[in-house]
Design brief:
Helix content: 25-40%
Radius of gyration: 15 Å
Number of domains: 1
Number of strands: 3
């Protein structure tokens, strides 16, 4: 199972892996609960218009918590929901640090 920015999808999709693509915002599905090898090729941030809207209302948007939340939602579409170990390729240093910090050092990065 893998995810990337949609604009990069054509260049990153190799033969046989298109069906393994799972958008980062997929929710409420068990379709991927057998996936144990994951690649999250994103370094995600809230969209600027959304941030500006909330800031205009006096609400601070925590970009780190947002990114971690999106990552965890995506990971929990996989076999981890069945209490199985998964392998995760996470090339973004920021995303690795967020996951490592959230896990209290339990996630091996």
């Amino acid at each position: 199972m893998w995810s990337c920015v949609i604009a990069r999808l054509p260049k990153l999709t190799i033969k046989g892996f298109k069906k393994a693509f799972v958008p980062c915002n997929v929710r409420a599905t068990n379709d991927y609960k057998d996936r144990v090898h994951l690649a999250y090729l994103r370094n995600i941030y809230s969209q600027p218009p959304v941030v500006q809207y909330f800031q205009a209302k006096g609400v601070k948007v925590d970009q780190e918590r947002y990114a971690l939340s999106e990552l965890l939602q995506w990971i929990f579409r996989s076999a981890i929901r069945e209490q199985e170990n998964v392998s995760l390729y996470l090339p973004s240093k920021r995303m690795r640090q967020l996951l490592y910090g959230w896990s209290g050092g339990l996630c091996k990065v």
